[in-house]
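QA checklist item 7 of 12: single-chain prediction sanity check.
[x] sequence parsed
[x] length recorded as 126
[x] structure emitted
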Amino acid sequence: EDAQCDDYKCQEICERFKLLGRVLLGLYTMVTVILLTNLLVSIFGKTYDTDHEKTRQLWQLQRYKLVKEADSQFILPFPPFNLLHSVYTWIVSCPFRCNVAEKDSAYEKYKKEKSTDCDSALIPLL
């Protein structure tokens, strides 16, 4: 059989080592398969977690848009009644619009004062 195993005692030792080698190879293969399976499961778990987080954020964004859309719709949808809602919205937003108009007029006044100062400063130079 083998050139190295000439006598009976040597042949018995070679058979034991062959058996031990096969057992160790089998154990190595099983451990490798188990570790690779665990690695695959952990990769899928991480992928699931990231996808779940993205899905949760997308759901919250869509819910926000839906609530915002529902909030912007008229309370009374029929034509004679939605005019009341428009008047109400205009009255409620009037202080904000008046405040903006006051700020705009104050800015225009400041801008006008600055432009006349610059113009009067340039006149002697000409």
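[x] summary fact logged: The radius of gyration is 42 Å.
[ ] second reviewer sign-off
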